[in-house]
Each structure stands twice: as structure tokens, then as C-alpha cells.
């Protein structure tokens, strides 16, 4: 195939694939701008009301354009935009509860302001909650762009389809993966490296629940992996670091790996295959 023929074929494919895609850079700009609009005024940024209202309306117009690029229907885009912005007060309250939970339970957090400005878990949760609201309105590609942008900035991968309750606490956060059909209750705490994933990635299971359910007040420590749509972690349980679970555990469980200490003697060491390096 000649270079010209390849260029023409590539152009044709791109026209077909991306006709209903929003501008990725503008989508990422929107996320950062709405985060600033929601939270920066609460940590000392001085503005007059008129200027703030103008910024709010400009952001709303920006968002409506992104939605139109996805749905290609002006009336539908306007309805989705209005619904999203009508839900902002409730989302804001929920996010402030998340920030309060982090402040309460992380000994290193000295204030809610610090959590808002410096905690990647809070940023990822903010983007997830806004994306989930769109996901519930059956807007799919834009929420994915939002959450993948948060993933790139924080190392925290939360699918917008996941259902997450109130006062959600992510500490450190790097390497956390929360799959599409995960259900998480209230007051759940998750540490770095946790995976809430699927046992099977077959496309035939795309419409089924593939990811676990985590009930209220559960703590999942770093490196734990919990897999499967039928796996339920009962309320008030503690899952220790590096635990691998594919079965349900009842409420009030403590699951952990027991570390053993052995003193080396003068006998020959076992075969190296018995050791993990």
C-alpha cells in the first residue's frame, strides 16, 4: 500500500471512529476547572459573586458543548447539562463528607483544606462522583475520559459505573483499581494497591455483575485483591494487606496473612524454589 493510500484509509477510519467523541483536552480542562470552582473558593480564593456566577455559567456552557459532541442532539445535551448541574449541590455535600472522613481517619491530615488541595484520593473521588452522575444519565465515553484523566494524575483507577457510598476514604491511593460493577457501601476505607476486580474478563459477561460488593464500614489494607461478582465482604470487616479473596466473608470478619519467623540454623537451606524473592 502506498503512503498516500494509507493516509486516505487512516483518515476514513478516523472519521468513522471519532465522529461522536468529545475533545479530550477540553474534557480534561473542564474537570480541573470544575474542581477549582467547587473547592478553591473554600480555601481562601477571594472572588466577588458576580465574577463567580460568570465563571459558573461559562463552565456550564463548556460542559454542554462536550455533551453535544457525544450525543449530537442539542435538546438532549441541554437536558443532560441541566440535570448534571442541578445535582451539583448534592455532589458537593457528598464530597465534603468524603473529605471530612479522610481528615478524621488519617493521622497525617491536619485539615479538610489540606485534603482538598493535596490528597490524590480526594481528587480521584471527586472526578469519579461527577463521572458516575453522567454514567447514570447513560453518557458513557465522556465519564471514561474524565476518570482516565484522574487515573493518569493520581494512579487511582475508578470506573464511573462503580457504585460508591458516602464518606469514602482513600489513603495514599496509588495502584487502586475499582471495576465497573463494584458496589461499595458507606464509610469504607481503602489503601494503596487494592484491586476490586473480576474473575473473568470474557466479553460475554459484559452485562453481568463481575466485581465484588463491599458492605458498610469495611477497611481494606494495601495490596489486597478481591475478585468476583458474587464475592461479598460483610459489613464491619477488616481485610489485611496482600490478602487474595475470591470468596465472600461474613460480617465482622478479620482476614489476614500470618507472618512466620524462623531462626536460621547451620542446616543447609531448602531448595531455592521454596523461597519467594
Protein model, in words:
This protein is an alpha/beta fold. The chain has 2 domains: 133 residues, Orthogonal Bundle (serine acetyltransferase, domain 1); 96 residues, Hexapeptide repeat proteins (UDP N-Acetylglucosamine Acyltransferase, domain 1). Helix content is 44%, strand content 11%. It has 8 helices and 14 strands. Strands 1-4-7-10-13 form a 5-stranded parallel sheet. Strands 3-6-9-12-14 form a 5-stranded parallel sheet. A 4-stranded parallel sheet has the order 2-5-8-11, with no helix packed on it. The longest helix is centred in the first third of the chain and has 23 residues. The N and C termini lie far apart (50 Å). The C terminus is likely disordered.
List the helices and strands and how they pair.
Blueprint: H1 3-17, H2 24-39, H3 49-71, H4 74-86, H5 88-105, H6 112-118, H7 120-136, H8 141-154, E1 157-158, E2 163-164, E3 169-170, E4 177-178, E5 183-184, E6 189-190, E7 195-197, E8 213-214, E9 219-220, E10 225-227, E11 232-233, E12 238-239, E13 244-245, E14 254-255
Parallel strand pairs: 1-4, 2-5, 3-6, 4-7, 5-8, 6-9, 7-10, 8-11, 9-12, 10-13, 12-14
Helix pairs in contact: 2-3, 2-8, 3-4, 5-7, 7-8
Amino acid at each position: 500500500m502506498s503512503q498516500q493510500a494509507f493516509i486516505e484509509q487512516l483518515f476514513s477510519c478516523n472519521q468513522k471512529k471519532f465522529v461522536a467523541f468529545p475533545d479530550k483536552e477540553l474534557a480534561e480542562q473542564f474537570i480541573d476547572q470544575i474542581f477549582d470552582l467547587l473547592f478553591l473558593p473554600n480555601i481562601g480564593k477571594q472572588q466577588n459573586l458576580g465574577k463567580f456566577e460568570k465563571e459558573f455559567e461559562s463552565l456550564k456552557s463548556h460542559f454542554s458543548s462536550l455533551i453535544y459532541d457525544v450525543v449530537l442532539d442539542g435538546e438532549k445535551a441541554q437536558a443532560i447539562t441541566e440535570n448534571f448541574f442541578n445535582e451539583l449541590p448534592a455532589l458537593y455535600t457528598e464530597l465534603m463528607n468524603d473529605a471530612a472522613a479522610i481528615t478524621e481517619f488519617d493521622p497525617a491530615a491536619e485539615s479538610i483544606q489540606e485534603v482538598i488541595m493535596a490528597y490524590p484520593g480526594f481528587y480521584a473521588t471527586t472526578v469519579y462522583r461527577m463521572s458516575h452522575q453522567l454514567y447514570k444519565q447513560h453518557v458513557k465515553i465522556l465519564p471514561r475520559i474524565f476518570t482516565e484523566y484522574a487515573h493518569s494524575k493520581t494512579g487511582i483507577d475508578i470506573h464511573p459505573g462503580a457504585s460508591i457510598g458516602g464518606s469514602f476514604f482513600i489513603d495514599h491511593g496509588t495502584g487502586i483499581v475499582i471495576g465497573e460493577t463494584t458496589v461499595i457501601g458507606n464509610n469504607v476505607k481503602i489503601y494503596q494497591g487494592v484491586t476490586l476486580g473480576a474473575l473473568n474478563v470474557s466479553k460475554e459477561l459484559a452485562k453481568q455483575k463481575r466485581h465484588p460488593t463491599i458492605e458498610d464500614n469495611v477497611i481494606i489494607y494495601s495490596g489486597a485483591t478481591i475478585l468476583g461478582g458474587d464475592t461479598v465482604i460483610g459489613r464491619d470487616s477488616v481485610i489485611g494487606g496482600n490478602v487474595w479473596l475470591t470468596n465472600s466473608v461474613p460480617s465482622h470478619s478479620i482476614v489476614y496473612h500470618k507472618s512466620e519467623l524462623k531462626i536460621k540454623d547451620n542446616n543447609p537451606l531448602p531448595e531455592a524454589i521454596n523461597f519467594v524473592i
